[in-house]
Design brief:
By secondary structure, the protein is an all-alpha fold. Helix content is 70%, strand content 0%.
């Protein structure tokens, strides 16, 4: 079956699965969880930096999605957009209630020369995460959606319920701040 113009085959599959759930086959909901769980946990983790909280919030997201599945309107948005919006709202609410504590994992020590490069890479990623965490929440969220989750500006604008221009601006400001912070952290040479 060919998808109608402008409709992605993945959204048609989601629509069929949703209809299956609404028709009473609760087991169909498992396929939606299987399809989106890693992305939702990853997106939440990108915002919270707390894996356990990410898993807990993802479960809450899917419970809320299941409870409100009848309110989903495929004419207004794709299912994934609706799902991401719910995940974002749950995450932002959790961040408002409790500021997470970030503890970096200790790197494993090995005698291999490549271990040095792994430690340097881990330190860079930890520093990048700390810089990312200092961004204003709206800039951080837009940056994570775009650069980590690889969503289009249009999808992010739908999730955020703002214009595409606002999303572009937030992402641009986030990139500028990240670039400046990374530039400032480079060791100065004594030449």
């Amino acid at each position: 079956m060919k998808a109608p113009f402008g409709v992605e085959p993945a959204s048609i599959d989601d629509d069929r699965t949703i209809q299956c759930v609404l028709d009473g086959d609760v087991d169909c909901f498992g396929s939606l969880i299987d399809k989106y769980q890693k992305k939702i946990v990853g997106m939440i983790f990108s915002m919270t930096r707390d894996y356990h909280l990410s898993e807990d919030l993802a479960q809450d997201v899917f419970v809320e999605v299941y409870r409100n599945l009848r309110s989903f309107d495929p004419m207004r948005s794709r299912f994934s957009t609706w799902l991401y919006r719910i995940a974002q709202n749950k995450t932002l609410n959790a961040l408002k209630k409790k500021k997470p504590i970030f503890l970096p994992d200790a790197p494993e020590i090995t005698s291999d020369r490549s271990a040095y490069h792994e430690v340097v890479a881990d330190e860079f990623h930890a520093e990048f995460d700390r810089i990312l965490d200092r961004l204003p929440i709206r800039q951080r969220v837009a940056f994570v959606w775009s650069e980590i989750e690889q969503l289009s500006y249009q999808e992010i604008a739908q999730i955020e319920a703002v214009s595409v221009g606002t999303i572009k601006s937030r992402i641009n400001r986030a990139r500028q701040r990240l670039q400046q912070a990374l530039k400032d952290r480079k060791p100065k040479s004594n030449d």
